[in-house]
Design the sequence.
């Protein structure tokens, strides 16, 4: 029913962990996005499954969804999931962020439920360090491609040295490795950035 609104791009469900017995008492609902210390922080709100007759009956906007139903015409207009973020992470956030940018909306529908095994595929293919490196790479690519605010970018560059080099003191090379991998694709990200700017109807602050 949400797609009766021409501005709705996607609708996402409540998410319950797969394979948990008995049925878990908490699940993941809508997501929010905030800008803190130079990065966008996404957070999925947890809810009590026992509240199905209360708060869970209310649909609301969501910053992004990782699973759900999409308006096919709008999805194709956006070009779908961007292969820049292959093999995983941030591609769904990028897709929804671009939809918000164009004046569309993303909706959380608690009446729909899926069961999902977190990292069910990626944990079998990649090590934890590899996943952290991939996530770091794509976080930078997302910033370079999608963030236009001068204030937000100033924060990003200010905190960047701390994020890259402080982890080295603990022997964690993944943040620096991810940044180096992102640099190899910076030209692609900046080209896509120019395309997104031409289509923009909302600012970063309005979206967040």
Sequence:
């Amino acid at each position: 029913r949400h797609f009766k609104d021409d501005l709705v791009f996607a609708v996402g469900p409540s998410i319950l962990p797969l394979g948990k017995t008995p049925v878990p008492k908490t699940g993941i609902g809508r997501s929010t996005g905030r800008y803190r210390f130079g990065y966008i922080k996404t957070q999925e709100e947890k809810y009590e499954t026992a509240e199905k007759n209360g708060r869970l009956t209310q649909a609301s906007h969501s910053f992004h969804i990782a699973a759900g139903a999409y308006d096919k015409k709008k999805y194709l207009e956006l070009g779908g999931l961007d292969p820049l973020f292959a093999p995983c992470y941030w591609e769904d956030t990028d897709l929804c962020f671009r939809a918000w940018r164009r004046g569309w909306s993303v909706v959380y529908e608690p009446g729909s439920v899926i069961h999902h095994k977190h990292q069910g595929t990626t944990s079998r293919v990649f090590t934890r360090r590899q996943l952290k490196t991939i996530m770091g790479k794509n976080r930078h690519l997302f910033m370079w491609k999608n963030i236009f605010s001068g204030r937000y970018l100033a924060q990003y560059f200010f905190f960047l040295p701390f994020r890259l080099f402080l982890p080295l003191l603990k022997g964690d090379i993944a943040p620096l490795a991810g940044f180096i991998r992102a640099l190899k694709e910076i030209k692609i990200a900046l080209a896509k950035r120019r395309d997104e700017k031409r289509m923009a109807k909302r600012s970063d602050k309005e979206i967040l």
Summary: The first strand starts at residue 8 and ends at 17. The beta strands are 8-17, 26-36, 39-48, 60-61, 69-70, 105-116. The radius of gyration is 18 Å.
